[in-house]
Design brief:
It is a single chain. The model has no long low-confidence stretch (mean pLDDT 89). The chain has one domain: ABC transporter involved in vitamin B12 uptake, BtuC. The protein is built from 14 helices and no strands. It is an all-alpha fold. 72% of the residues lie in helices and 0% in strands. Helix 7 crosses helix 8 and helix 12 packs antiparallel against helix 14.
Length: 307
């Protein structure tokens, strides 16, 4: 293969990894606050259809990304209301959110099936973005670079900022945090809204960049991969970045194998490669034991101020 082919494959890996990284960063913050939201897939689908509908009707692709983030945040507030204010079971509510998001996206996306949208252009000027080699670094749209900025920001926020330390304290010991005056419910509402906005943005990236057209269930279960990636990364942003690009490489391997017409491998097996990799990774983590992989102590547990 030529150098140009290798650069193209690398860029495909980056684009495939970007929405998973964004969604996983949002879920990481949510779980660090002590809340388990299994509705990432549903929020991604709602973000995808909201972003695509706004982009096609207004012609503003950037507006589509904002609409996707807003749709994900709005749906996450339904989840927050149920699990924080009404103390509903987090696992059941998250699963219901995914089912709801899947149905809503199928219904509202029906008029847009088969339509296409204009992608955002590269962020950097043409001499860099079109260069045969430098385009591997400078040939992407703004959302790819935003995902890297978000990784740095989330890592700093959780490790060095006072609000981030408060959020971690709420996730590790909500009763103790409440006892010293921290607003546990408000912190968790904010974390869930942030996670929902990033899930919606990730979904919008699928419909506006990865495959710039609308199709039913466009995200194809990538929200579940983002959830598994948080565990794989041991709730650490830098590991999350590496894991997202690892899964992006697996997805690219599937696409490249199909394009090359690898006849001795069934296409069904190629399609299941990303999910098979997810199962293998989680199994290896379980067999290896804790090893620093401990989840936040209050993850999935309801908090009652009077409890």
């Amino acid at each position: 293969m030529t150098l140009d082919v290798y650069v193209s494959i690398f860029m495909t890996v980056v684009i495939a990894a970007t929405p998973i990284l964004i969604a996983a960063l949002g879920e990481l913050v949510v779980e660090k606050s002590g809340v388990l939201n299994l509705g990432v897939e549903g929020m991604m689908l709602c973000g995808a259809v909201a972003g695509f509908s706004i982009a096609t009707t207004t012609g503003a692709t950037s507006g589509g990304y904002l609409a996707g983030a807003a749709a994900g945040a709005a749906l996450s507030m339904v989840f927050a209301l149920l699990v924080l204010s009404l103390s509903a079971n987090q696992v059941a509510t998250g699963l219901a959110l995914t089912i709801f998001g899947t149905g809503v996206s199928s219904l509202t996306g029906r008029p847009f099936v088969g339509k296409t949208v204009q992608r955002l252009g590269p962020l950097f000027p043409h001499p860099l973005s079109d260069h045969p080699l430098l385009r591997a670094l400078f040939g992407y749209d703004a959302i790819v670079y935003l995902s890297l900025v978000l990784t740095v920001a989330v890592a700093w926020f959780l490790a060095a900022s006072r609000p981030g330390l408060v959020l971690r304290a709420v996730g590790e010991g909500d009763a103790a945090a409440h006892a010293i005056g921290h607003p546990v419910i408000r912190v968790r509402y904010a974390a869930i809204a942030f996670g929902g906005a990033l899930a919606g943005l990730a979904g919008a990236y699928y419909s506006l960049a990865v495959t710039p057209m609308w199709a039913d269930r466009l995200t194809a279960g990538r929200g579940w991969i983002a959830l598994a990636l948080v565990v794989f990364a041991a709730w650490r942003p830098w590991r999350l970045l590496a894991g997202a690009y690892l899964f992006g490489a697996v997805m690219t391997l599937e696409l490249q194998s199909k394009a090359a017409g690898v006849g001795f491998v069934p296409p069904e097996f190629l399609a299941m490669l990303p999910y098979l990799a997810t199962v293998v990774v989680l199994t290896l983590i379980a067999l290896r034991g804790a090893g620093g992989q401990r989840a936040p102590a209050c993850l999935g547990k309801a908090f009652r101020a009077g409890g």
